[in-house]
């Protein structure tokens, strides 16, 4: 007899008499209540995790959109000011300041794009933006972004490019991200007073 309440699974076993004929049936019941409750808790936890993940992705997409709008304005105005500054022959220091603002704005925009990539990766919609990439431009832009931090750490960061720098086929933003990570780690783990030369 299976007890009332809970969840049970039963197995029926026949018993045979001396002549090999079935005479009785024995029912063996196993209480699987705890296992079923654990499965229910696991399903609930999975549903909550998926809901939280969707909420996180939506939040990232929304906040990224809110950040991209002012960053695009900063980048556009910096580009206009830099072009005007060069045409007017204003001193080199202002050009360097504007270039730094432009590079920093682009770098922040890339961070925002990285956040969007995370959301796309979670949704299984991540794609690459491939094309011809000028490595010298990637290196120069990356060096400008880490130069100030290197100087603050007492490091001398320099780049000795070859006469010709080839272009490659790839995703420029991701290549720059890799290079920035390498340069940041180099600055972080290099002793003060050292000189780092990029080739």
SSE arrangement:
Elements: E1 8-16, E2 22-31, H1 33-87, H2 92-122, E3 131-134, H3 135-152, E4 156-159, E5 167-170, H4 172-188, E6 195-198
Parallel strand pairs: 4-6
Antiparallel strand pairs: 1-2, 3-5
Helix pairs in contact: 1-2, 2-3, 3-4
Compact summary:
The chain has 199 residues and is of the alpha+beta class. It has helices at residues 33-87, 92-122, 135-152, 172-188, and strands spanning 8-16, 22-31, 131-134, 156-159, 167-170, 195-198.
Q: Strands of the biggest beta sheet: in what spatial order?
A: 1-2
As residue ranges, the low-confidence spans are: none
Structural class: alpha+beta
Question: Could you tell me the strand content as a percent range?
Answer: 15-25%
Helical content band: 55-70%
Explain the overall architecture.
The chain is α+β, with helices and mostly antiparallel strands and 199 residues long. It has a domain at 130-199: Heat Shock Protein 90. Helices cover 61% and strands 18% of the residues. It has helices spanning 33-87, 92-122, 135-152, 172-188; strands at 8-16, 22-31, 131-134, 156-159, 167-170, 195-198. It has a two-stranded antiparallel ribbon. It has a two-stranded antiparallel sheet with strand order 3-5. A two-stranded parallel sheet has the order 4-6. 7% of the residues are buried. The mean pLDDT is 79.
